[in-house]
Amino acid sequence: MREFIVEITTTIPGGTSQSEVDSLRALEAVRAKELAANGNLVRLWRPIGEMRSIGLWQADDEDDLHANVLGTLPLSPWMAFQVTAVQPHPNDPGRS
User: Fold this and answer.
1) How far is it, in rounded angstroms, from Cα 11 to Cα 23?
2) Residue 2 C-alpha from the chain's centroid
3) How far apart are CA 27 and CA 24, in angstroms?
4) Integer Rg of the chain from CA
5) Residues 7, 35, 86, 77, Cα dihedral to 10°
6) What is the pLDDT of residues 50-70, one digit of tens each?
7) Is 82 exposed, middle or buried (0-12, 13-18, 19+ CB in 10 A)?
8) Residue of 68, 88, 79 lying closest to 5 (CA atoms)
9) Would you call 85 helix, strand, or coil by DSSP?
10) Which listed site, 4, 45, 48, 54, has its alpha carbon 20 to 30 Å from 35?
């Protein structure tokens, strides 16, 4: 599988009820756990003081990432994704 750094910004549409937001966030947590168990979601960070996420994700290719991984997130209709394909650097200290 290929690796991708994905920056996710979620914008809740005005007029959305808090109960709908809470429900979708709960579903989002469940789906994130499933994607982690499948090996698609490797790491996920939130920049301090910001309402966005930066994650390390894996998929067969970028089309697979969008269609079968990111597109399955319950909040995806409200998300903007910035995807960067990455590969190990020869000097990566974590490389085996």
Assistant:
1) 16
2) 15
3) 5
4) 14
5) -40
6) 889 999 999 999 999 999 999
7) exposed
8) 88
9) strand
10) 48
Phi then psi dihedrals of residue 26, to 5 deg: -65, -45
Tokens of 3: 């690796």
What the block records as the tokens of 14 is 């005005």
Number of other residues whose CB lies within 10 A of the CB of residue 21: 15
The band of 1, judged by pLDDT with boundaries at 50, 70 and 90, is very high
Euclidean distance between CA atoms 48 and 31, whole angstroms: 23
Q: CA-CA distance, 19 to 41, in Å (whole number)?
A: 26
Residue from 43, 39, 28 nearest 77 by CA: 28
Burial class (CB in 10 A: 0-12, 13-18, 19+), 91: exposed
Q: Can you tell me the distance from the alpha carbon of 88 to that of 40, in angstroms, rounded to the nearest whole number? A: 17
Residue length, the chain? 96
